[in-house]
Design goal:
It contains 21 helices and 28 strands. With 685 residues, it is α+β, with helices and mostly antiparallel strands. The chain starts with 5 loop residues before the first strand and ends in a 21-residue tail after the last helix. The structure holds zinc ion (2 copies).
Length: 685
């Protein structure tokens, strides 16, 4: 079993943290990483630290550069000019997922669409396979599966080809297969590949341009306020009996992707709202009312036949950012040759570390030393790409370096990807991530499929990097997500200082199952602290008593002539065998239950079962004492065995305390670390 850990260190949060603390981002990141490593170490996490990494180290981000070039070769990364969400405050483009209700995910200011050259990741090539594979997943919990369905945004329906002007056809989609005759107009995404053909009218073209270059204020994206452009053109309805006005609107994208849809007001609320706006004349249109004859489509000779179809909201997204704290994109611009990929043997393209961002613009573009270079193809003076990769792109491969021994990291990527270690460790048995990680996991699954088809991960036939997945909920405090921004963070250092690492670990596990929000409260900490303190004190006192009992009996046996003492030392009459049998049964049940809990990652339940076992051990002693006044040697041995078992099972939860007890019980033959009961050690070959 390999527990891997890495720091996803590029990106806006680190850049802003550096700005706030007046450091360079690289200093800030290494300071944070050492602090966090020390915290995790203190809490006794058993990550393989030799394999841990910081994604902003040049030896690591060359992976992203290699991946970029590899996907570029395969046509899965492409340069496009398109509408991108832009935040004026953050001076950066945003992925669709970073826009929440028309607001920037980070600063919560309104976002607008602008047109800009961007690098894109073509996820659309694998969206349908990501959908299909979901049915094969066994060890994915409900939350993680739901996140994958949400990112897909699958809509089932029908599509039909409507004759368009110039003899071509436009394929339109609707989820309402039984209501084609109720269609009243057609909505086309401004990102639709054929949209230009509908914007030949100068006024329509102007409005489309306006919409793309910032005319769309994203304060509200709902149907009441979203921009609509009436092209003045129309298409015949599927039955051929009616003319459907042709409108361009981004309302399509967020629901069906960059496609064209039949609008059916009687079935769809958004369509109904737009129909009302049309009727009220509140739609940007000049073509329809102008004297210029609108282009009319021919009526179909035969009604087109609808066919079953699926649309996905998941779509290609931009992976480049106009910020300096990120992986440099390995591209050089030459006047003669255009955009030229940096040859792989010249990787990494190193990010200068002396850049101190201020929060405005892109300081990387102002570094002549970085920007000025020569063209790899013709040797002429050329300029480096100054956009960097979004840290979302770095995250696409984060699970791979963990499989590679640290000493192999300096090798070429081709050699690393050929290591048998990858076949040994992949697919990951389980990825455990926060419940907001659905997009990361979705895109990681896509890139695995791409690398399967390209070659390096061909051994993963289904293209899935994770055999299992568990999404944990967030820690909340006073009803809100715990975050530095809200100032309601509980400082783990202070808790560890006060209660010890084992109490903090146990309290986190005890308070909630991973799939539930953990409402942080001090009572869980106090309860767990009391439990561990009692286990410790009780175990040590009973161990002392047991030793005294044995010593006393041996003393009595060795000195039969000693007078007076003999009567007191007479072995206790043993009448409690049935109680010991019951204790043995309780122990057996506890091992069974806690093991099951561990396998199901129901750790809160495991902690409860350990607490219950401790209560039963104490109960056993109480009953024996009530019955015969004191413990017989057999009782004492049974009690110590049960306490040792409890210490053994506490190992993964409270490792520091468990190990000390394990040694105190004299059971460290297999090493100081407590093994799991019933599991024999296999020495790895
Ligand atoms: Zn912003
Ligand atoms: Zn050139």
């Amino acid at each position: 079993m390999l527990f891997a850990f890495g720091y996803d260190a590029f990106g806006l949060p680190a850049e802003l943290g550096a700005i706030a603390s007046g450091e360079s981002p690289s200093d800030y990141v290494s300071r944070c990483a050492s602090h966090m490593t020390a915290q995790l170490d203190r809490l006794g996490f058993s990550f393989d630290w030799e394999r841990s990494f910081v994604s902003s180290d040049a030896i690591m981000y060359r992976w992203s550069q290699w991946l970029f070039l590899t996907l570029l070769d395969a046509g899965l990364v492409y340069r496009g000019t398109g509408n991108v969400d832009w935040c004026d405050t953050c001076q950066t483009t945003l992925a669709t997922i970073q826009v929440e209700d028309g607001l920037c995910w980070r600063c919560h200011n309104p976002v607008r669409l602008v047109q800009r050259p961007q690098w894109y990741l073509r996820v659309s090539a694998y969206v349908a396979e990501n959908d299909r594979r979901l049915a094969e997943f066994e060890n994915w919990d409900e939350n993680s599966l739901a996140s994958q369905r949400f990112v897909l945004g699958r809509v089932d329906g029908v599509e039909v080809d409507l004759p368009a002007p110039g003899g071509s056809a436009l394929t339109v989609f609707t989820p309402h297969a039984d209501a084609l005759e109720l269609a009243r107009f057609v909505l086309v995404s401004p990102k639709h590949p054929d949209v230009e053909a509908w914007a030949t009218d100068p006024e329509v073209a102007r409005r489309l341009e306006e919409l793309r270059s910032g005319g769309l204020e994203r304060g509200s994206r709902d149907a009441e306020a979203i921009p609509l452009i009436d092209t003045g053109a129309w298409l015949p309805s599927p039955s051929g009996d009616e003319r459907l006005p042709m409108l361009i609107s981004p309302v399509v994208d967020g629901r069906f992707g960059a496609t064209a849809v039949l609008a059916i007001p009687e079935r769809d609320h958004a369509d109904e709202v737009i129909a009302e706006r049309l009727a009220a004349g509140a739609v940007a249109s000049s073509a329809r009312s102008s004297s210029a004859a609108p282009s009319a489509a021919p009526s179909p000779a035969v009604a087109p036949v609808p066919r079953a179809a699926v649309r996905y909201r998941a779509d290609d997204f931009s992976i480049s950012r106009q910020r300096s704290w990120g992986t440099p994109i390995p591209i050089v611009y030459c006047d003669a040759c255009g955009a030229v990929p940096v040859p792989r043997e010249q990787l990494p393209v190193v990010l200068p570390l002396d850049i101190t961002p201020t929060g405005a613009g892109n300081p990387l573009a102002e570094s002549r030393e970085f920007v000025e270079t020569t063209c790899p193809r013709c040797d002429a003076p050329a300029r480096r790409e100054t956009d960097t990769l979004d840290c979302h792109f770095d995250a696409l491969w984060l699970w791979i370096p963990a499989c590679v021994p640290a000493e192999a990291r300096a090798e070429s990527l081709e050699d690393i990807l050929a290591l048998p270690d990858l076949r040994h460790w992949l697919p990951c048995e389980r990825v455990v991530a926060g419940s907001d990680s659905g997009n990361f996991v979705f895109d990681q699954r896509i890139v695995t499929k791409a690398l399967r088809d390209i070659g390096p991960l061909a051994f993963l036939a289904d293209g899935e990097p994770f055999a299992g997945c568990l999404f944990h909920e967030m820690v909340i405090s006073e009803g809100r997500k715990m975050s530095k921004h809200l100032g309601n963070v509980v400082d783990p250092d202070a808790l560890v200082e006060r209660f010890g690492a084992d109490t903090v670990r146990l309290a986190v596990l005890y308070a909630a199952r991973p799939q539930r929000s953990l409402n942080w409260s001090d009572s869980a900490v106090l309860r767990c602290h009391r439990f561990l303190t009692q286990v410790w004190e009780y175990s040590l006192s009973r161990l002392t008593a047991a030793r005294e009992l044995v010593d006393g009996e041996e003393l009595a046996a060795g000195e039969p002539e000693a007078d007076g003492e003999n009567a007191e030392r007479e072995p206790v009459k043993d009448t409690s065998e049935h109680l010991r049998r019951r204790l043995a049964k309780w122990c057996e049940t506890a091992v069974e239950k806690v093991t099951q809990d561990m396998e199901a990652i129901e750790l809160h339940s495991a902690v409860r079962n350990l607490m219950r076992l401790f209560e039963r051990i104490k109960d056993f002693e109480k009953r024996v004492l009530a019955r015969q006044g004191q413990l017989s040697r057999a009782d004492s041995e049974a009690l110590i065995d049960a306490l040792a078992l409890l210490a053994q099972m506490l190992g993964p939860f409270a490792p520091h305390l468990a190990e000390e007890l394990w040694i105190a019980f004299g059971r460290e033959e297999n090493g100081a670390q407590t093994p799991w009961p019933g599991v024999s050690f296999r020495v790895p070959a």
